[in-house]
Amino acid sequence: MKIVAVIPAYNEEQTIADVLKRTRPFVSEMIVVNDGSRDRTAEIALQNGAVVVSHLVNRGLGAAIGTGFAAAKKLHADALITLDADGQHDPVEIPKFVSAIEKGANVVIGSRMLSRVGMPWYRQIANMLGNVSTLVLFGAWVTDSQSGFRAFSKLAFETIEIKTNGMEVSSELIAEAHANHFPIVEVPIQAIYTDYSLSKGQSFFVGLKTLLKLVLKRITM
Amino acid sequence: MSIIQLFIVAFSLFAIARTLRQFRRGKLTIAFLLLWILFWVAVGGVVLIPQTTNTLAHIVGVGRGVDAIMYVSIIALFYGLFRMLVRIEEVEREITKLVRRLAIDSIEEKK
């Protein structure tokens, strides 16, 4: 089975090399979607053995994951795993996702809320709000709707069409999985929070903007 | 006639003249031309004879004419804002499609 890691990256020159080094043993290929970075992210990713697809201009997380899906199709991947470039996810946990896919799952979400280890309390609250919004707007419930550590079977990543550009993609993916009747399997993951990865996540106002975009998506599509 | 009336009527005439010119240059459809002329004539009419809005307000059940205009304006503005948000969202999606296409095509060149 050809397992491809899709790593969206925007100005992650500090962490990308380490993430790639630790990811390589667990996957067949690594795709770094360089989302218009102005630093050396693309160059470092290339040196560390990744296939780099670059957006000419910054388009946001959703756009980057969508490009990752398209690139995985082109590289004939059988399964796709998304993880963050900021070092928040431990690639050692990739086999958990792979085994869930091998057992027939189409969409696997790594949930930080099943263990809650190391997750700041205010992040837990923000996360619950994200989960409730996803449930109310799209009728799908997961314990960590904003998780960036996910896996998709070939069928799932070829079927799901990502339309959103920003952070709202996390909820969109769950909504799409639900709409396409793919059962969502959750596996517990540990999130590694550092000052660096916290600065890369969603702040309060970005969270509000995400919510607004989700509402707009819900009423226009 | 007060100064503000004079000013608004003059502006309406100016706007109509501009719209006509745009139309002659072929930048507007006839439907748009008529719509805009109707709009500015209505503006001029309301400014010159403010009582008309009171009659209108009474018909729809709002106290004063000025209030009726405010209500309608706010609703129109909100609707316009919503349309714009949706339109921007569409444009964003189109841009992403272009950027993605360029990014994906570059893989092929490497292989």
Q: Which secondary-structure class do the elements of chain B indicate?
A: mainly alpha
Distance between the termini of chain A: 35 Å
Strand tally of chain B, please? Answer: 0
Approximate helicity band of chain A? 40-55%
**Coarse morphology of chain A:** globular
Strand content of chain A: 15-25%
Architecture overview:
The complex is a heterodimer of chains A (221) and B (111). Chain A is of the alpha/beta class. A 7-stranded mixed β-sheet of chain A has the order 3-2-1-4-6-5-7, sandwiched between helices. Chain A has helices at 16-23, 41-47, 61-74, 94-102, 121-138, 154-159, 169-179, 195-200, 204-220; strands at residues 3-9, 29-35, 51-55, 79-82, 107-111, 150-153, 184-188. Chain A has one domain: Alpha-Beta Complex (Spore Coat Polysaccharide Biosynthesis Protein SpsA, Chain A). Chain B folds into 2 domains: 1-49; 65-111. Helices cover 87% and strands 0% of the residues of chain B. Chain B has 4 helices and no strands. Chain B has helices spanning 3-24, 30-48, 51-60, 65-110. The radius of gyration of chain B is 23 Å and the shape is elongated. The mean pLDDT of chain B is 87. The interface between A and B is medium-sized, with 20 and 16 residues.
